[in-house]
Specification:
The structure is a homodimer of 129-residue chains.
Chain A lengths: L2 H8 L3 H9 L6 E2 L5 E2 L2 H15 L4 H12 L5 H35 L9 H8 L2
Antiparallel strand pairs in A: 1-2
Helix pairs in contact in A: 3-4
The structure holds a DNA duplex (30 and 30 nucleotides).
DNA sequence: CCTTGACCTTCCAGTGACTGGAAGGCCTAG
DNA sequence: CTAGGCCTTCCAGTCACTGGAAGGTCAAGG
């Protein structure tokens, strides 16, 4: 299979697939014409990485997860630890964003949003009161 | 005032302050020795940008907000629109992260996390079921 | 046989918002 | 006169791609 077919099947852009080869996540074969030749296993790995990325795992976490996936003697505890670390990270991001949202909501609510210059949003940014 | 004092007072790293000059957010004066010389107005702007960044506004949004702040004839509606656009962005990010969190939580919960290799997290990433 | 257009290749540069580090000038205290 | 703590510029790296240029390959149609 050529890269275009793999892109269509996995939903990943060809650029991204080449990038994943660059950084050693996958190692497709090469045809005589220099084209990448993907096996089912390569496709499968790309799907795996795509789903892990969609859950917000970093590339390095994806690499670790892939390694665990391919290790028949893995301990599920190792997988779980990566997932829990990532879950913590996500919770922290959500908390930070929620704080921003609450503050912003208050400011937007307090702002008349008309033709006049008076604006509590700018006042807050200016004073930090 | 030298950059170190400004950094201490605003809480921004010196590197960041120099970067903000690079991209034209501030324009401190220069002493005969080549050192940056910051006026109160520069400090004030840096505080403004620091607070806007803490609320998650992008640098370009900060630039626009600063311009509005310095425009006595601004309409508060323009400020409000920037803030509301950013608020939307934040809500979308929170929603995306919440989805990830929910999925991950379910998977982490389903995983025994012991010495055995069987792992629903890997299974999900592998199958996308 | 030739051309067209859709593929594929590599390589380089840019994104956002910094951050780290090297190499070197300036300034004050002892 | 030296030590150290400032300051300067410039270059490179981060993360995970993304865009684009220049060029090779392949299948179909004339």
């Amino acid at each position: 299979m050529n890269i275009g077919d793999v892109a269509a099947r996995t939903g990943l852009p060809t650029k991204t697939i080449r990038y994943y080869e660059d950084i050693g996540l996958i190692t497709p074969l090469r045809g005589e014409n220099g084209y990448r030749r993907f096996r089912e296993a390569d496709m499968h790995k790309l799907g795996f990485v795509g789903r892990a990325r969609a859950l917000g795992f970093s590339i390095e976490e994806c690499r670790d997860l892939l390694a665990l996936y391919e290790d028949e003697d893995r301990a599920s505890a190792d997988v779980r630890q990566i997932a829990m670390g990532h879950l913590d990270e996500i919770e922290r991001k959500i908390a930070a964003l929620s704080d921003m949202r609450d503050t912003l909501k208050g400011l937007v609510h307090a702002c008349a949003g008309d033709h006049r210059p008076n604006c509590p949003i700018l006042k807050e940014l200016s004073d930090g009161a």
